[in-house]
Each structure stands twice: as C-alpha cells, then as structure tokens.
Design brief:
Chain lengths: 236, 294
C-alpha cells in the first residue's frame, strides 16, 4: 500500500507543487529566495532527465510489441522484424557515435570532417523513409477532399467557400484569379489574411483556452491524487 | 447510373493527378510569382534590425517528415542572419531527427560563408530531451541544459557561449516547428522571460499560431511552404546576390516548391468542383424522378 500508492501519490504531490509554488515566489525574496531558486532548478533539471527515460520506455514498449508479434507470427510480422532491425542498427550506431566508442567518433561529423556512419544512415535511409511516409498525406487529402467536400447544407457551404478562398489565397493562384482587374491581385490574399487573422484566430483562441483549462484541471486532479489511473489503480 | 460512376471515380485517378501535378512543376519549374504577407515581413524586418552584436537562438523543432516545409525556412533565416553578421545559437528540441536536421542545414549553409568561425559566429549545442523543462532551464543558464555542445566541447570554452548565458543575452528566438513545441516557446519563454519569439510552422499547424501573433506573444510567423517562399523572396529582394543561389537548377527551394503546391491546390479545387457539380446533378435528377413518380 505504501510503496505502490501512498509514496507515488506523495511524490506526485510534491513534484507537482514545486513548479506552481516557485512560479509565484521571487528568487530575490530575502529569506526564501535561495530555497525557491534551488527547488526550481532541481525540479527542472530532474524533468530533463526523466524525459530521457520516457524515450527509453518507448523503446522498451516497441521492442516488446514487435517481439510478441514475431513470436506469434501475426499478420505483418516481417514488418515488425524490419522495425526491430532498424531500431537495433540505428540505435547501436547512434549510441556508439554519441559516446565516441572506438572508430565512432562524433554523432554527425567525423574527426576528418566527413559524415559519420550514423549521419550517413540518417541522411540516406531515415530521412527519405520518414519524408515518403508523410508525403502520402497529400494523396489521401486530395482523395478525401474530393469525396467529403460536398455542398449538403449551409455550414458545409460556408466551410467549402472558406476552404476555396484559403487554398487559392495561400498560393499565387489567388493573385491570378482577379489579377485582370485593377488592384485585383490583392483581393483574394487580403480575404485569406482576414479569414486567418479574424475568424480562424478567434476559433483557435477558444480551442487553446479550452485545452489549457482542461490541462490545468487534469493536472490539479493528478497533483491532489483524485486522478490515479497513471498508477494503474482507481483505488481511493 | 453514369453520374454515380463519375462521383465514385477510382481514387487512383486522383492519386495520379496529384503525382503528376507535384512531379512536373518540380522538374520543370514554372516560376510563379511570390508576394509576402505581414507575419513574414514582420520576422524579416526584425532580423533586419539586428546586427553583429546581436544573438538569434534558432531551435530545430522538426524532423524529416516536414523538412520540405521547414528546411527552406531554416536555410533562408540562417543565410539572412549570417549575411548580417548576426551570431546564431542552434539547438534542437524535437526528438525524431531534430538534431540531424540542424546538422544537415548547418553543413549546407556554413560553407557559403568561409569567414564564419564555429564557436565565435555560431554555436551548435545539439539536442536535449524534455522540451518544456529545457526551455525553462535555459532561462537560468544554457550551460545547465547543454553542458557541452554537439562536438562535446564544454560551453565555457566556446567564445560565443561565454557571453550568451541565458535568454537575457538573446535578441530573438526562432523556432522551426512541426508540433506543439512552438506553442511552448510562446507561452513559456516569451510569456515568462519576455524574449521575442517567431515561429516557422508547417501549414497544418500554422492556423493555431495566429492567436499568438495577435496577442504579441509571437512577432512573426512563417506558415508552411508559402511562408518559407515569402521569406526567400524577401531575402532575395533585399540581397540580390542570393538570386543566383536560389535559381541554381537541381536545388530545392520553397519558391520552386510553391509551383508544385499551386498546381496541387488547383487540382484539388478542380476535383472538389467536379464532385459537387456531379453531386448537384444527381440530386436534381433524383428530385425530378421523385416528382415524376408522384
């Protein structure tokens, strides 16, 4: 009970409270100033280290999931195998290069000024593969826009008109559309700017404020021990 | 029945049109004109107001997935800074390829300026995990977050970093971002330390940052490839010797990329118009058929 529940709750409460309290207290204050500075610095430095462990957690999770898939010969297991191979090879070269072990001296640039094996693989394998995956979006977006953008009601019509203006206004198309009229080349870009800075900014502001309030309330629930799902328990 | 076939055309036809619309303009550039918008001009003018005594912190908060949008921004801003003699501190806070993107861009740009000395005119501090905590600690001291630079040189031995202790010594922060990290630069660093922040964002995430721009928490915004091309155009117009560099055949620039983006937007708009026209015709046909049956 103590190790699995009370201690984690107490740690969460203290660590969660320090950034909030130290934010409102001055480091120049006569008596508590140095203590505030010390606590703030420590917690922020620990956060950088803990974030590193989150990456490790991700790697462990990917390895576990992939190994299970390969063992049970689930559909697509060869992809899991190639994922693991990529992880091991890239990871090994990256770690050895970063730690400067043996011939691997430097993460990006070798002592002779050339590319390190890790940087070579990043440039010629990792980057093109990542870019190729992301570029597929263009094809899906085009296909989805063709199928989904339909004038079905008033709201959909407004959305379609706004999308057309922004799509044209964010490219030289917008300047050509009314370019034959005096001063017309600025019309569509000006309307695009208005859409982005007025209705769009207003909606985004609402989303950002709503998300921030949600994050603040969830953080409070975690700090106060009301939300305990991160411990794997809902026990009071 | 023929109309239904038109509205359900094979999606591979759409894919083919997009593939051709992207490939052809990249191979055979059209040279469409690019004009600038206020958020881009604002960042450009801010950099123009800086000089050799000033420091820009350039944060690579993107990976290879959005490199076609973010890398031209990084290159144009670095060229602008180096041309004006502004000192640049380069960091990376994005875990999936941020540091290699920064290394690649620096490797491309610094040879154009043989007089530059690493450590004196620019410093490359490398990658650090835990973006929010790292951002806050850099407000106290860069050395707390980056004890050594990317080449494992202690920060105390780097001449530029001897005078750049924390955000008080930075005149402008530019984040080239693919995700929420740009938002943190605004609401953690600008709001708490007051350092001006500008963002080079992907087109998908740019709409969100107009709210920060409006509130003054960001002083400039490059939105996607369009923003990058506008910045390139402003740099070329102010420093005409860059025109030759950007016009080199086989070199990808945002201005050239805009040709492909413009054609793709036109194709998507044409497909949407076509789909809606057919949809409208089907509805009219069905309504008439309904009236006839009645």
């Amino acid at each position: 009970m103590f190790w699995k529940l009370r201690l984690p709750l107490a740690l969460t409460f203290i660590v969660g409270l320090v950034p909030i309290v130290t934010f409102f207290l001055s480091t120049q204050a006569p008596v508590i100033g140095p203590a505030v500075q010390f606590a703030r610095d420590r917690v922020e430095r620990y956060m950088v280290i803990i974030a590193g462990f989150a990456l490790l957690l991700g790697v462990v999770s990917v390895v576990q999931g992939s190994v299970r898939k390969i063992e049970r010969r689930r559909p697509g297991w060869p992809f899991a195998a190639s994922l693991l191979a990529g992880l091991v090879v890239m990871g090994a070269f990256g770690i050895l290069s970063a730690m400067r072990v043996g011939p691997f001296q430097g993460l990006l640039t070798a002592p002779d000024g050339g590319m390190t094996p890790f940087f070579w693989m990043t440039r010629n394998l990792f980057n093109p593969l990542q870019a190729a995956m992301f570029s597929l979006l263009a094809f899906y977006i085009a296909s989805a826009a063709f199928r989904a953008f339909r004038v079905r009601n008033v709201e959909a019509t407004i959305l379609l008109i706004a999308a057309f203006i922004v799509m044209a206004g964010r490219t030289p198309l917008g300047e050509y559309a009314f370019g034959w009229l005096p001063g017309g080349e600025r019309w569509l870009p000006a309307v695009t700017d208005w859409i982005m800075t007025v209705p769009n900014a207003a909606a985004q502001r609402g989303v950002i404020i709503g998300a921030a309030l949600g994050a603040a309330s969830l953080s409070l629930r975690v700090i106060l021990g009301i939300e305990r799902s991160y411990l794997g328990t809902t026990e009071k | 029945m023929k109309l239904e076939r038109l509205v359900n055309i094979d999606r591979r036809i759409v894919y083919l049109c997009i593939a051709v619309g992207t490939t052809l303009p990249l191979l055979l550039p059209i040279g469409l004109p690019v004009s600038s918008t206020p958020p881009v001009r604002s960042l450009f003018e801010k950099v123009e107001s800086l000089g050799p005594e000033d420091v820009v912190l350039l944060s690579f908060d993107y990976g290879p997935t959005t490199a076609p949008e973010n890398t031209p921004m990084a290159e144009a801003i670095l060229r602008h800074c180096f041309t004006r003699g502004i000192k640049v501190v380069v960091i990376a806070l994005f875990p999936i390829g941020g540091v290699t993107m920064a290394g690649e861009v620096l490797a491309n740009i610094t040879p154009e300026y043989p007089q530059l000395q690493e450590g004196v005119d620019y410093a490359f501090l490398g990658y650090k995990d835990g973006a929010q905590a790292a951002m806050k600690q850099m407000g106290v001291a860069f050395v707390n977050v980056f004890p050594v630079d990317n080449g494992r040189r202690p920060l105390g031995e780097i001449p530029l970093m001897q005078r750049v202790v924390n955000y008080d010594d930075v005149d402008l922060i530019v984040t080239l971002s693919t995700n929420v990290i740009a938002e943190w630069w605004a609401n953690l660093v600008n709001a708490q330390f007051g350092t001006p922040v500008a963002v080079g964002a992907t087109a998908v995430s740019a709409p969100k940052y107009y709210a920060f721009l409006d509130s003054g928490q960001m002083i400039g915004l490059l939105g996607g490839l369009k923003g990058a091309s506008e910045y390139e155009r402003l740099v070329i117009d102010r420093y005409p010797h860059f025109a030759r560099l950007y016009d080199r055949p086989g070199v990808y620039t945002a201005i050239k990329g805009m040709d492909a983006q413009t054609v793709d937007h036109a194709i998507i708009m044409a497909f949407i118009l076509f789909g809606n026209t057919v949809h409208f015709l089907i509805r009219r046909r069905d309504r008439r058929a309904g009236l006839r049956d009645a």
